[in-house]
Amino acid sequence: MRGKDYMAVLQAVTEVMGEAIHIVDASGKTILYNEAMARLEKISVEDALGKPFRQVFGSIPESESTLYQALVNRREIRSKQQTYVNIYGKQVTTINTTIPIIVDGQVVAAMEVARDITEIKDMSDRILSLQDSISAGSRTQPKPPGPDEQESEAPRPAGPGGIRRYHFEDIIGEDPGFLQAVERAMKATSNTASVFIYGETGTGKELIAQSIHYGGKRQKKPFLAQNCAAIPESLLEGILFGTEKGGFTGAVDRAGLFEQANGGTLLLDEVSAMPYELQSKLLRVLQEKYIRRVGGSKDILVDVRIIATVNESPQELIDRGALRPDLYYRLNVIGITLPPLRERRTDIPILADRFVKKYNEEYGREIWMIADAALEKLKNYNYPGNVRELENIIMSAVSMAEEEHVLTADDINIQQGYHEEHSAISEFGREGETLSEYLADIEQTVIRRYLTSNGGNVTKTARELGMLRQNLQHKMKKYEI
Ligand SMILES: Nc1ncnc2c1ncn2[C@@H]1O[C@H](COP(=O)(O)OP(=O)(O)OP(=O)(O)O)[C@@H](O)[C@H]1O
Ligand SMILES: [Mg+2]
Question: Quick one: 135 and 200 in the same domain?
Fold first, then answer.
């Protein structure tokens, strides 16, 4: 193949991938500049291609030109966020990676790959201003930031104008291990030490966190919650610590959640999803009690109680390199472990009773009892989604109950458990079945199972399945899940 053909192949590959790509050769001449990059920078492919890039992008000083830095100083810059105003005056935010391409010790080219995250950044800005307006005491319920976000993805304020408010009296359970955890939480109300809660999804981590906040001296101050897994890594820092107007970053002046929660409590869900670097910044903030906004130079004193949660064992997270041990020890001043529902089965009937009462009221029903067979069914299930799943089962049973006063086994609609469902996948070789149909079947089953056990949370499910969220959403559409 000739060099020209190689270039055509490369050009086609980059167009299909959709990432914006700019490659310069050792002399600084642009040898590849694709349509995606042209759209992003509003410079036509013809204007860039074949020209020395310093001529086309001369307005950017050498020290700030990432391509120049890669080419001349062999500097590799990964995942750097940049915000700039394009020639049409539109503010564009990208995540850029620039690398020198080295062959036999010589820099032969430099490549920049950019991903347009303008929309994601707009979303995070909206989340923050939404948060601002709520802490300012606005009574109007804000619109969710976008059509495709789930409730759990935006920081969830609770309390006045907020969404939920839990107290210790809402916590149900008599299992000794569980009660021990609740007792530790109660003790936490008398101080402001950091709290670390470990429990699978649906075991009541938020319930405990809110009860601690609303049971203590900080109850009149804000309680804010942020799921660290729900926000793109590059934006999390700005959301937590705020941003300051800066020439290069183009960010606006805005307080982050630490400032907004000042005097109150900040719940950091899935803290292990926070990038490792940011975890050490968080540790520093906890030690020094000062934050600095992204792009800012001022230290701001904050007084925020941190409650952090994880839904996998902390030791495993540390071993896997997802959670910094130093941060863990700093957060785990008060450590609380919530047992999964399958390990406190005696609480199943107690919880079920309480949920029947709750949904009687909600749906105007008068269910007086749960039939023995129904109770057996409830007791024998494994509850990958824990108390949340049990609550959902009762909710739908009460709303759909055939009889007026009794919940029967037929009303209890339990999703099949892991093992049953797993073995329900047939052997390959049904008539006329192709391998790809068979594999699609398995894929679909696994996705459904994980979605169910995560209470429908797409972000979490994607992470557990080791795939991109967009990919998962695409597959859900395909399988009509
Ligand atoms: N002990 C309990 N008593 C009463 N309700 C409970 C209890 N534990 C959990 N629930 C209910 O289950 C649901 C899930 O609880 P919560 O949101 O606190 O779980 P979580 O551990 O934060 O889950 P996730 O990891 O998915 O965020 C809530 O509706 C809550 O009211
Ligand atoms: Mg939670």
Answer: yes
| Closest ligand (CA of 454) | 1
pTM for the whole structure: 0.65
Residue 428 · residue 392 · CB < 8 Å: no
DSSP conformational letter for 383: -
Residues 460 and 404 in one domain: no
% pLDDT > 90, the chain: 49
pLDDT of the residue at 41: 78
The CATH number linked to 134 is 3.40.50.300
Determine the structural domain holding residue 404 and report its residue range. Answer: 342-411
Three-state DSSP class for residue 140: coil
In 3-state terms the chain splits into helix, strand, coil percentages (rounded to 5) of 45, 15, 35
- What's the 57 CA to ligand 1 centre distance in angstroms? 54
Q: Are residues 397 and 448 in the same domain?
A: no
At 406, which amino acid appears?
A: V
Choosing from 382, 411, 440, the residue where a domain stops is 411
**pLDDT tens-digit readout, 242-298:** 988 764 455 678 899 999 999 999 999 999 999 999 999 999 999 999 999 988 889
Model confidence over 174-194: pLDDT tens digits? 999 999 999 999 999 999 999
| Residue of 213, 387, 453 with the most ligand 1 atoms within 8 Å of its CB, for mutation | 387
Are 102 and 159 members of one domain?
no
Q: Which residues line ligand 1 (CB under 6 A)?
A: 170-173, 199, 201-207, 269, 311, 387-388, 391, 455
Ligand nearest 200 Cα, by number?
Answer: 1
